[in-house]
Amino acid sequence: MTVLKEVAVHLPSQRVAVRSLQEELHLTDVQLKVYERFYGLSHILREPEGTVYDLLMAAAGELGTLHGLERRIRYVIQARTLPVATPYPTSAVQEVTRSLGLHRAQAFVVFHHACASGLLAVDIAGRLLERDGDPDALALVLTGEKTFTIAAKMVPDVAVNGEGAAAILVAPAGGRDQVLSYATRTHGRFSEGLTLSGEKLAEFGEMYPKALAEVMGEAADRAGLALTDIDLILPHNVNRVSWVRLCKLIGFPLDRVFLDNIPVTGHCFCADPFLNLRSACSRGRLKPGDTYLMAAVGLGATFSAMILKH
């Protein structure tokens, strides 16, 4: 059974008010009010200096159990939203792997599910470790990206993006957070992502909560649970209103969705569910034996859910 042996996060040093980004993001006064009052966005986190490599190294550096386990790391997987993050031939994941001394590890990137690629990477890591059959082997999943273009800084009329990062040690057994199920579905007719317009954009907005509810229900079924059995949902931090709509649709209590980070971190690409896991644990929102659901949606449009037992 795939487990999360340890989850560490790096929160950038600069806290930026969304209001101060109005000119940079080309927001009208009306759009800004919608982001702040309707979507519940207040601040995002940015790292004013450094690169993607620095973000990933900072997150990996927070892993308390990594030192001494380097020879057990078989895979290093960078989960990414953006297909291109560094100029060729630079590879952040290869550089991090070398810097950490993970000489026995195979390193690669997955970005096929956009912002849902973090959950995909955990699933791939678990499958690879299970296939290898070595109970001592480990995988390292890395998430975190720079918002270096306008397209990376925001999802229009949806979210403002931040630069938080996470590092996850995945093991085939023996950890505290056990993966009970994983479900994902891509609705390819919305593959245009940010360039959707007209009727298709309206259709996507209409089906969004239904599609996410569907994949969450599928994950619950695979875990032998009902959604009402879930103690806490750890969402992707795009905005508050999307989760209000979803909870009304499925009859799930909004107070069992961890929304605390949305106003203070912004949407941190593939890192959101893991940032929320660390925050929820530190605030006593999860206790041993609780089941929780990580959810993420990637442009394209991929809807994913993973259920774990704490």
TrEMBL record:
* Residue ranges of every copy of the Beta-ketoacyl-[acyl-carrier-protein] synthase III C-terminal domain listed in the record: 221-309
List the keywords (alphabetical): Acyltransferase, Transferase
One function term, GO molecular function aspect: acyltransferase activity
Biological process terms from the Gene Ontology for this record are: secondary metabolite biosynthetic process
InterPro entries associated with the record: ACP_syn_III_C, Thiolase-like
Superkingdom of this entry's organism? Bacteria
On whether Transferase is a keyword of this UniProt record, the answer is yes
Q: Does the keyword Transport apply?
A: no
Query: What's the protein here called?
Result: 3-oxoacyl-ACP synthase
- Organism of origin is Nonomuraea deserti
The taxonomy runs:
Bacteria, Bacillati, Actinomycetota, Actinomycetes, Streptosporangiales
